[in-house]
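agent> step 3/5: call structure_predict on target 'Amino acid racemase' (Plantimonas leprariae).
agent> reason: downstream docking stage needs a structural representation; sequence fetched in step 2, passing through unchanged.
tool.input:
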Amino acid sequence: MARTVGIVGGMGPAATVEFMRRIVAATPAADDRDHLRMLVDNNPKIPSRLRAILEGDGEDPAPVLEAMARGLARAGADFLAIPCNTAHHYLDAVRAASPVPVLDMLGETLAVLAGGRAPAKRVGLLASPALRKVGLLDRRFQAAGVAVVHPDAAGEAALERVIRAVKGAGAGEAEREAYAGVARGLAGEGVDALLVACTELSMPPPPDAGVPVLDTLDTLVAAVIREATLPD
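tool.output (status=ok):
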């Protein structure tokens, strides 16, 4: 019997819905009963990760994330997934508070990058500037022999505008073109692949910059399906 996934969501709410859609689309199913059971706390009231990390004056999101994890476990989740890259800054705290296992989206992504037939050694990062500030990816990836190339200051500012647009009314043509421009700039730095590591940046069409694109949201989808369907 498939295990139930609990989704610590709301970061942002549209990205959580997209995560659920991708799980449904990727699940081998011939009927409703073949799909996974998902318990979802799509909570957009979680304190801003960007304000807490980038601006330094925001409320700590960790206590809310911890409470959500405990609530999903009480509701019957067998394991948890957090479809937000920046929220993985608080992964250790959530794991310590959760009575059930919590998947590591960034660890799953690193395993894909480093374990393929042609492992990526240099990736261009399309993400919130918060990831660079806390070194969330850099330390782990560099330890595995994967160099992370960040956009310049103008590129980071452009990505932040795209992220905020998606959280609001949605990304328009100007935001999509800015996104593609940052991707092309990173591709020009000689990267092996581009890594989409912000779930808001998973919402627009993936940028075509002439190099492979890996999305952390997709690696988390694959991990959820794997964990939910493990043999008893």
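agent> step 4/5: record observation. The chain has two domains: 5-104+219-229, 106-215.
agent> proceeding.
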